[in-house]
Amino acid sequence: MKRVSIRISGKVQGVFYRASTVEKAHQLNLKGLVRNESDGSVFVEAEGDENKLKELIAWCKIGPPRAQVNDVEITEHDKVKNFYRFEIVR
Q1: Model pLDDT, residue 31
Q2: Which range of residues forms the domain containing residue 64?
Q3: Chunked in runs of 10, what are the mean pLDDT values of the chain (90 residues)?
Q4: Does 7 fall in a domain?
Q5: 42 - beta bridge partners?
Q6: From the CA atom positions of the chain, what is the Rg in Å?
Q7: In a domain, 86, yes or no
Q8: Three-state SS for 79?
Q9: Annotated catalytic sites, by residue?
Q10: Is-contact 75 2, C-beta < 8 A?
Q11: DSSP string covering 7-70
């Protein structure tokens, strides 16, 4: 099991990015969180199977239909946090 942090910038707020990320994470059986940041970006922290995390990262580079992703920053972590589920944090 691995954990990654993903910061997505571009037109990613107000386009159902968070809700779509939760849906995708559930499909991939990943745990973690997604939240809007004050700078207009979206922050994702996810943990689970390494290949499933790679799928999530690939999806984040595109996002939901109305999103316009400009940049995706990925940070890999050594330790997992053992999230209980994947959820939107406000």
Answers
A1: 98
A2: 2-80
A3: 98 98 98 98 98 98 98 97 97
A4: yes
A5: 8, 36
A6: 12
A7: no
A8: coil
A9: 18, 36
A10: no
A11: EEEEE-SSSSHHHHHHHHHHHTT-EEEEEE-TTS-EEEEEEE-HHHHHHHHHHHTT-STT-EEE
Residue 65 belongs to domain with CATH number: 3.30.70.100
For 52-75, the DSSP string reads HHHHHHHHHTT-STT-EEEEEEEE
Q: Identify the residue whose tokens are 């700078």.
A: 39
The one-letter amino acid at 88: I
Residue partners of 54: CB distance under 8 A and separation at least 6: none
**Residue 51 — φ and ψ, nearest 5°?**
-65, -35
- Asked whether residue 85 is domain-assigned, the answer is no
Q: Token pair 């199977």 is at which residue?
A: 49
Q: State the first-to-last Cα distance of the chain, in angstroms, to the nearest integer.
A: 26
How many independent structural domains does the chain possess?
Answer: 1
